[in-house]
Design goal:
The complex is a heterodimer of chains A (about 290) and B (about 425). Chain A is mainly α and about 290 residues long. Chain A has eleven helices and two strands, in the order ααααββααααααα. Chain A has helices at about 5-35, 40-60, 65-90, 95-120, 145-165, 170-180, 180-185, 190-215, 225-240, 245-265, 270-285, and strands at about 135-140, 140-145. The radius of gyration of chain A is 19 Å and the shape is globular. Chain B is globular. In chain B, α9 (about 230-245) links the parallel β8 (about 225-230) and β9. In chain B, about 40% of the residues lie in helices and about 15% in strands. The chains are: A mainly alpha (about 290), B alpha/beta (about 425). Chains A and B meet through α1, α4, α5 and α10 of A and α2, β7, α8, α9 and α10 of B.
Chain lengths: ~290, ~425
């Protein structure tokens, strides 16, 4: 059943969903795209951040976005520590570190899952805020306000990170270490410290992304598994390390998913991510905005 | 003299030692199972397991089964269908358990049905739906109150038709349990000439339901039957609240798994109002039987330390009832012979804390005891409100009924 209203609605909701996907993927774009760290624990870090936000919201009635902002410095430190452990135990030891690094991050993801289960149990958790559960009405068309909030914050976060990486001294240093680590070393800079800082930034943005995750839908300890495919798909489709590409790829994915959900049947939706990834890579192997 | 006393004492110690060794050698009766303790079904799995553990503690306090202690051998199946065949093979061949309980839910149970049938093993089912319909195992007994396959959809559609419903939308999770429910709903609708104007399955891990609900609303159904799994039920209801479902809808719900759990109910709060959904046990006066209150007193205390569903209405008492039926059958047959236990279970009615249970030939309940109840007057963020009667008014079955349907759905939500 085709209807122009339904199609337009699907596009609008798809753009909102896509920006949310960008927010949960942008950290991975830095850690995996720029730093070549096989960070499969990225979605587990994300879910951990959501539980942090849940705890602050539940115990102190803090708004989820403010709670997300509050845990950002902690996640920055957590990122510094995680990279240092990864570097000392894997990356420092040779070229096959990447393969073994995947095992390291898988291990961390499972440990995080278990710790969350031990601390919070297995039940779904959600937060309360004035913008959750309500919608804006335009005639017959309604948009969930939580989706609009996620859209605005995600857009802001992605633009901020893109500006930081392209305009600031440290941001350019992070891009430089991604391009030629050895050249940086010859110039007297310590690439390991720059990578550690960049990994800290990539983890810190998960504070905000984790807040968006629990604003958009309830969370449970193993939710990270649902996001592994989507986040890696967005980052690879974007072109490794491209922040603006991440936003574009995520919006394309979100719109494609909602159009399929609305017009063609929900069963096809999961296939759409990877079908689009294959299509993009067939035409542009370096991804949408990759070099 | 001293030497004789010493020898006598030594002999006495030896005799006592022999006796206690003989008691210790009487090995426990092992009951094996997998249970979802992580993954999407974990909330239910843990509550179900706690119910079974309370039965184990009660039966051991009374001296066990056949004078032997009962021991549970439990593995986490991670809510996954791919884990259970290997776990049950291990339980039988390596752990050498005496009896088998099924894991909670249809998805992890379905793959072990061919195995238990092939080995001729008794399996006490734990809230799966229609897993034995094609396998036809005569030693399967489901503790769930479902009854005949179509009774679930039939009771919901009865209520819908009485409220004036004439067309149906079907929204279903792409999972074994939900698909089985949808299948029976389509059959019942066809028999009653109710056109299905929207019929969609959504995949696991769907993040956002707003677009699906928009498409459903555009089809203008007046009955909306939803067969969903716990992670999705909350997302669907939230989207319904935000997007709206239309004034035509007379009744909404039916088969939403998750709305029976305290955490989900507490999170959704007032969004639940008006939804008519299935349930198994509710704190209404007609639902108390011998031992029910004592069970919930114990459960409520232990649920806090076990970090499981604080209410535990949906699964936990049925886990306990599963043990009660085994207790009765083993006691009556005075053996662990699985064929004898199965014969006893098939031919007798069993008194349990969830009421009397009698099985038909396919191992399901002879008569459905599945409730259809409507959420009323639910407030936000208050688990305790669900302990009192009246929050979920029972509309079906008639003998347990505590009120009438409020329709249309939008009016019932206010």
């Amino acid at each position: 059943m085709f209807s122009m209203d339904l199609l337009l609605g699907a596009v609008v909701l798809g753009v909102l969903l896509g920006c949310f996907y960008a927010a949960v993927s942008v950290g991975l774009s830095v850690s995996f795209g720029l730093l070549d760290v096989p960070h499969v624990a990225h979605p587990a870090f994300l879910v951990l951040a959501s539980y942090g936000v849940y705890q602050l919201n539940e115990s102190y009635d803090i708004d989820p976005l403010v709670a997300g902002l509050a845990i950002t410095p902690l996640f920055f430190l957590f990122g510094l520590l995680a990279y240092r452990v990864y570097y000392e135990t894997f990356e420092k030891r040779g070229s096959d570190a990447g393969v073994r690094g995947i095992a390291f991050f898988f291990g961390i993801a499972f440990i995080i899952e278990v710790l969350i289960i031990l601390q919070f149990g297995v039940d779904q958790r959600s937060v309360s805020a004035t913008y959750i559960g309500k919608s804006w009405r335009f005639g017959e068309f309604r948009i969930p306000i939580r989706q609009l909030v996620a859209f605005a914050v995600a857009l802001g976060l992605t633009v901020l990170l893109a500006v930081y990486l392209s305009k600031t001294f440290m941001g350019r240093a992070i891009r430089a270490v991604a391009q030629d680590e050895e050249a940086l070393r010859l110039m007297g800079a310590n690439p390991v410290r720059i990578k550690q800082f960049a990994f800290g930034i990539a983890t810190a943005v998960l504070g905000i992304a984790g807040a968006l995750l629990i604003i958009v839908a309830p969370i449970e300890p193993t939710l990270d598994r649902a996001y592994i495919g989507r986040t890696f798909c967005v980052v690879v489709m974007a072109g490794l390390g491209s922040i603006s590409g991440t936003l574009i790829a995520a919006i394309i994915l979100g719109v494609a998913e909602t159009i399929v959900l609305t017009m063609f049947g929900a069963s096809w939706a999961p296939a759409i991510s990877f079908a689009m990834l294959l299509a993009v890579l067939a035409v542009r192997p370096q991804g949408l905005l990759g070099r | 003299m001293k030497r004789r006393t010493f020898l006598g004492g030594a002999m006495a110690v030896a005799v006592v030692g022999q006796g206690s060794r003989a008691l210790a050698q009487q090995s426990p009766i092992k009951i094996g199972m997998s249970m979802p303790q992580t993954g999407g079904l974990a909330g239910g799995g843990k509550a179900s397991l706690l119910g079974i553990e309370i039965w184990r503690d009660d039966i051991n306090a009374k001296g066990g089964l056949l004078g032997r202690k009962v021991e549970l051998v439990v593995y986490d199946d991670k809510s996954s269908a791919s884990e259970t065949p290997a776990i049950y093979a291990k339980l039988v061949d390596v752990d050498k358990v005496d009896l088998l309980f099924a894991p909670y839910a249809t998805v992890p149970t379905a793959p072990i049905m061919p195995f238990v049938k092939q080995r001729g093993l008794l399996l006490m089912g734990n809230f799966s739906f229609q897993v034995n319909s094609k396998v036809g195992h005569d030693m399967w007994f489901n503790n769930a109150p479902w009854g005949p396959a179509d009774s679930w959809a039939a009771s919901f559609l009865d209520l819908a038709q009485k409220a004036g419903g004439k067309s149906m939308a079907l929204l279903t999770a792409d999972q074994e349990f939900a698909q089985n429910l949808a299948l029976t709903a389509r059959d019942v609708a066809k028999k009653r000439n109710i056109p299905v104007v929207f019929d969609q399955s959504y995949p696991p891990n769907t993040v956002e339901f707003a677009s699906i609900i928009r498409a459903l609303k555009a089809a203008k159904p007046d009955i909306v039957y939803v067969a969903s799994y716990p992670p999705d039920s909350a997302g669907i209801l939230r989207a319904v609240n935000e997007i709206g479902i239309g004034d035509d809808v007379k009744i909404f719900g039916g088969g939403m798994v998750g709305l029976q759990f305290a955490a989900v109910m507490s999170n959704l709060g007032s969004l639940l109002n008006g939804v008519v959904n299935y349930n198994t046990w509710l704190p209404e006066p007609s639902m108390y039987f011998d031992g029910t209150k004592a069970f919930f007193d114990t459960y409520t205390k232990r649920a806090i330390e076990a970090k499981v569903d604080p209410l535990g209405y949906y699964l936990a008492p049925f886990g306990y009832a599963m043990g009660q039926m085994i207790d009765a059958a083993v006691g009556a047959t005075k053996s662990l012979d699985q064929k004898g236990i199965a014969k006893y279970l098939r031919e007798n009615e069993h008194k349990t804390i969830v009421g009397p249970i009698a099985f038909s030939a396919d191992g399901e309940r002879k008569e459905t005891a599945t409730l259809q109840a409507q959420f009323r007057g639910v407030k936000d963020k208050d688990i305790e409100q669900f302990r009192s009667s009246g929050r979920q008014v029972i509309l079906f079955p008639d003998k347990l009924k505590t009120g009438n349907l409020i329709s249309p759905f939008e009016a019932a939500r206010k």
